[in-house]
Amino acid sequence: MILTKTGEDLHLLKIAFREFYFNQGNMVEEPSKIQNREFGLMGFDGVMKRHLMFSSLGGLVASLIFETPSDVFASNAQYDFPTLPISEKGWRGAELIFDIDLKDLDMKCIRSHSYASCLSCSSSYVSGSQESCPKCGSNNIAESMLPCDRCVSGLKNEVLKLHRFLTSDIGIRPEMIGTYFSGNNGFHVHVLDESFNDLDSRARADLAAYILGVGILADAIGVTKDTRNDFRIRFPIGGLDHGWRKRISDRLGISVSSQKRLSNLIKDLGGLEQFRRRVAEITRDMGVRIDSQVTTDVHRVFRLPGTLNGKSGLTKILCTDLNSFDPFDESCQLSNREVTVRVTIPKLKLRLKGERFNLNEEFVRVPMFLGVYLISKGLAHAVRLDPGTGRFIVPASTP
């Protein structure tokens, strides 16, 4: 659901986004072979314009200043004719990209910093405290979250797991992997090695399944069914020192010299079927929680690096050092000038652009970057002063 914005909200967001592209258009990254990419511009009304083409980065940035979209996307694919329908574009290959999103990590802390926004009366409250809006009783609800440091740490750990798969199992050189903070609740990992561009959807699905740990069987370490004795152990000729074989054997604490120990473990678990379930649990736990649909789509448009995320006002930005990267600081690129907002969540605490904020009042003056962040998350609305009375004017929500 699109969070309800007032006319004043949209006015402030467009000013902030236009100012960013006018002053910091040099942050927008030019994709390789830009003239062969399909672009998509999402308006603040939620309507996407697709099948667009730009022949230069300058032309793209000029369009962003003029049109001021909420989000900017470019295809991972290269086409002969980017502006035509999918079936007529002439596919030339597509970059291999992985998406890791906070919603897929099952972080225990998420519930404590998730919020619900009522699309009927524009009030907000802590998500999970009740099913309907406490102010008007409506069930027309949109949810958002403010990621915490534990969330970021969890995301980074998952990205590092993906890096290990790509380098050790797939053989991709570290310098051919680009890691980007998405600008909201996740990371995008781009494979820069063009030898992977020709992979079709089926091949990408197989690769995604391998990284997720889906379909990795006990057979991988040489445990198979035997009609006489329930199971048989015959370790692979290549040993247990690589890939999923190593991960599973390390977790079980076995090696090629411990066949008896493995046999006893299988018996202790209750037999082959129980052991297979144990292996499936291990692979699910050790696999990387990527969004497989994102990886397999060879016609997808992805958020363009260096552009603003309409769900937060933060920038999709390259992480040159993932361990030290701080998304609440480095991706926060909007202006520091002050704006007035009405905060819809009482006693809101957060950290952004090197500052800590404790918002205890309903009407507050905050930096532009914070105002845009809260409005984008549905936790505040822009307001202005009536020059005659000096009172705050709170506009009604847009349809």
Question: What attributes does this structure have?
Answer:
globular, 399 residues, 10 helices, four-stranded antiparallel β-sheet, single chain, alpha+beta, 23% strand, DNA primase, PRIM domain, 3 domains
Could you give the topology of this structure?
Blueprint: H1 7-23, E1 39-42, E2 48-52, H2 57-67, E3 71-75, E4 77-79, E5 91-94, E6 96-101, E7 114-118, E8 124-126, E9 141-145, H3 149-169, E10 177-181, E11 186-191, H4 201-212, E12 223-226, E13 230-233, H5 243-252, H6 259-269, H7 272-286, H8 292-296, E14 301-303, E15 317-318, H9 327-330, E16 338-343, E17 348-352, E18 355-359, E19 363-367, H10 368-376, E20 380-382, E21 384-385, E22 392-393
Antiparallel strand pairs: 1-2, 1-3, 3-14, 4-5, 6-11, 7-8, 7-9, 10-11, 10-15, 12-13, 16-19, 16-20, 17-18, 21-22
Helix pairs in contact: 1-2, 1-10, 5-7
Distance between the termini: 13 Å
Total number of beta strands: 22
Do you know the CATH architecture of the largest domain? Alpha-Beta Complex
Please identify the oligomeric state: single chain
**Helix fraction by DSSP (H/I, runs of at least 4):** 25-40%
Largest sheet: 4 strands, antiparallel
Q: CATH class of the largest domain, anyone?
A: Alpha Beta
Architecture overview:
By secondary structure, this protein is an alpha+beta fold. It has 3 domains: 184 residues, DNA primase, PRIM domain (Alpha-Beta Complex), CATH 3.90.920; 99 residues, no CATH class; 73 residues, no CATH class. The chain is 29% helix and 23% strand. It has 10 helices and 22 strands. A hairpin with a 3-residue loop joins strand 12 and strand 13. It is globular and about 90 Å long. The protein starts with 6 loop residues before the first helix and ends in a 6-residue tail after the last strand.
